[in-house]
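Pilot study result, target chain (256 residues):
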Amino acid sequence: MQQGRTGPLHVADLADVERPPIIMVPGLDGTALLFYRQLPLLAKAFDVVVFPLPDDSRATMSGLVEGLHRLINELSDRGAILVGESFGGALSMSTALAHPDDVRGLVIVNSFPWWPDRGQLWVAPRLLRVLPWGAMPVVRAFTESRLHSSHALDEDLAEFHTRSRAIGREGYIRRLEILWDYDIRSRLRSMCPPTLFLGADEDRLVPSVYWAHYMADRVPRSDVTILKGYGHICLVNHDLDLLDHLAPWWATATTL
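Predicted structure:
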């Protein structure tokens, strides 16, 4: 939301500046709760909504794409910017490929066009099906060094753990299984919307910087920004303002 002369202005009221809404698409957690820090920051300039992913063991990538596409059409007849983190980046790019006329822009955070560690994708869902779901907070505590930025505050981590309790087991496992068949490498040159790839240089889960450059080399109308000093789960960090990167990129993208 943006403040106007006589009160709040929503993006729908600003047709003259061609500023579509933003839809935040979460990663494997699926809850969209981890966007809590970025939502008020982005709302200074845009209307922002989230797209929580279903806790559904039968979900498919095509089904998620169509669900996201329906939300775009509900919000605007001029399309939307999709901001996707990790798995959400994969879903956002898949939606842009399936519905190029309705995705006005893409911001892809620590994501990938394909998951090369096939052994990990085979083992992880099977392991999680036998692991008590209540043990996941303990598992996350041991994997923090791979997930978070080295300078994350204790309160950032505490909030992450609190919000992560809402992650549904079936949806989380199913999203890992969906990645087995996900591969858009050969389709990157067909990506139409202006795209900003953000890669964190301390990401120890995904080689985000490598994939950001890989995709930008193939996607037309794309740019890369390296998030220096950040890990894979960076949007919860106290000192990262996504608007600082998104606003100037979008201003440039709409003038080209």
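One observation from the pilot: Residues 83 and 107 are 5 Å apart (CA to CA). A full batch analysis is planned for the follow-on phase.
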